[in-house]
Structure of Signal recognition particle receptor subunit beta:
Amino acid sequence: MDANAQAPAAFSPSPLSFFVLLLLLAAIAALALLFLSKSKPKKDAFIIVGLSDSGKSTLFSLLRYGKALPTVTSIEQNEATFPLYGSKEPHAHHIIDLPGHPTLHFLLSDYTPLALGIIFVIDAATFPRLSRSVAERLYDVLAERNVMQGGIRVLVVCNKQDSFVAWPREKIAQALEKEIDYLRTTRTATLDAHTTTASETSDTFLGLDNAPFRMSHLDTDVRFVECALVGQEPGGGEDDAGDGEGDGSGAQGGESVGGGDEEGGRGLERIKRWIEEVAAGER
Ligand SMILES: Nc1nc2c(ncn2[C@@H]2O[C@H](COP(=O)(O)OP(=O)(O)O)[C@@H](O)[C@H]2O)c(=O)[nH]1
Ligand SMILES: [Mg+2]
């Protein structure tokens, strides 16, 4: 009887061994979590790109310090994490101002795995003259592998609207669609000639192959906004009268911000709102 009563007790674990087992499991779980969080880089960056002199460093400086500091042509990127200047929102944002120099373009792919958004800055005043170069750069951005996969939002900032010769965003969007439509045929032709696969380069075919190129055919959310980061707008009025789509350009319009003027450039508030909305969507 005694032996029978004790036999099962020999196999039942003591409360202490239960506790040790629990501790061990908790330690394994904690280690696994630590490993996962280390191996997966945090996606939190906004990359400012565009040709030289378009206003990238001015934008970075306005977002960070609320004023346009004198800039020099940079060969290194400005990179910092900070709450947007003057914003009521306390969250810090990781912002990178990539140099516009052509030899530094390869830097983009280093950063896109971390990117939530790309801010593509255009000098709207020199755009008519430089539209081919701007389109080539935008093509590189839109066809970059991580951007193509979707999930990275793109804001095209048509800057220098204080200039009388600046093109409005609808006109820029249409011209860029035309240029990209042309570029994608020439680029894929070059690809075929070199029998390179698209995945080895950024020269992927953009959009639908049976229709003229439209931004709206991309998986990427592309928006256009106007701004004058420096200087005064000649008319002093709102620029959002033609907000939205439906002009045949297929590009999505920027959103309307009532009285968006504030210190440090007209239209800046709209850019800040876009950054905050994209970041909030990720939290
Ligand atoms: N008129 C005018 N000039 C601007 C504007 N934004 C930037 N700039 C000027 O354009 C030049 C190039 O700006 P910067 O930010 O250095 O361009 P980045 O090369 O793209 O970094 C500077 O002299 C800026 O003061 C704007 O909205 N209007
Ligand atoms: Mg710069």
About this structure: The domain at 43-282 is CATH 3.40.50.300 (Rossmann fold). The chain is about 40% helix and 15% strand. Strands lie at 45-50, 78-83, 92-97, 115-123, 153-159, 222-226, 252-253. Residues 1-5, 195-201, 233-264 have pLDDT under 50 and may be disordered.
